[in-house]
Write a structure and sequence with these properties.
The complex is a heterodimer of chains A (about 120) and B (about 110).
Chain A: E1 3-7, E2 10-12, E3 18-25, E4 34-39, E5 45-51, E6 58-60, E7 68-73, E8 78-83, E9 92-100, E10 105-109, E11 113-117
Parallel strand pairs in A: 2-11
Antiparallel strand pairs in A: 1-3, 3-8, 4-5, 4-9, 5-6, 7-8, 9-10, 9-11
Chain B: E1 9-12, E2 18-23, E3 33-37, E4 44-47, E5 61-66, E6 69-74, E7 83-91, E8 94-97, E9 101-105
Parallel strand pairs in B: 1-9
Antiparallel strand pairs in B: 2-6, 3-4, 3-7, 5-6, 7-8, 7-9
The chains are: A mainly beta (about 120), B mainly beta (about 110).
Amino acid sequence: QVQLVESGGGVVQPGRSLRLSCAASGFTFSNYAVHWVRQAPGKGLEWAAAISYDGTNKYYANSVEDRFTISRDNSKNTLYLQMNSLRAEDTALYYCARGVGSYSHFDYWGQGTLVTVSS
Amino acid sequence: SYELTQPLSVSVALGQTASIACGGNNIGSKNVHWYQQKPDQAPVLVIYRDTNRPSGIPERFSGSNSGNTATLTISRAQPGDEADYYCQVWDSFTYVFGTGTKVTVL
C-alpha cells in the first residue's frame, strides 16, 4: 500500500534552518510529482511546494519562495524540503502528498511532521 | 491570487443531506477536488475532478461544479462524516485550498 512518512520536524529558532524528509513506499516514486502541504495549528491547509516526477520542475507558494527548496532523490524514494530563514509563521504540520496528473490533486498524504519556530 | 470561500460550519441531522459550498470566480471552468480531514488525522481525498469518487469513498459523497460555486454533498449523513472539508483547485501554477468547513452531524 502507498505510504508516505515524514520526518525532520522539531523546534527551531527564527532565522535558522531545518530539513524535512518524506520516505515513500508502495508505489513507483519516480513516476509521480510530490508536494509539501502545511497546516498551521488550528488553521486550514496551505500548499507550499511541488516537484515534478523527475525533479526538473519545481513550484513554490509565494509565502515560501526564496526561502524553501524542494528536492527529491528517486534512488532513495525520498522527498526533501530545505527550509531556511524560518519565521514564526512557518510553524505548522508539514504533510507530504502524492500528486495526480499535471496540476490536479493529491491522492495520498503522510501523517505530517511538526515544525515549531520559536525563540 | 485566486481565492476559494467556504462557510465556516455546516450542521446536518443524522441521516439527512449536507451541502458544502466552495465559491470562486468562474470556478466552473476549473477542476475542483475535495478533502475530508478528521481531528488529528491527515486529509483524505473524497472527490476529484468535480464529481469523481476515489475507491473506498461511499456513494453518499458526491460533487458538482458550475458557475461560481462548487458543491460537495453528503447524503444520509453519518456520525463518521463529522470532519473538516476543504475544496481545492489549481490556478496559475499554484494549488489553492478553500478556507474549510466544519461539518457537524446532529
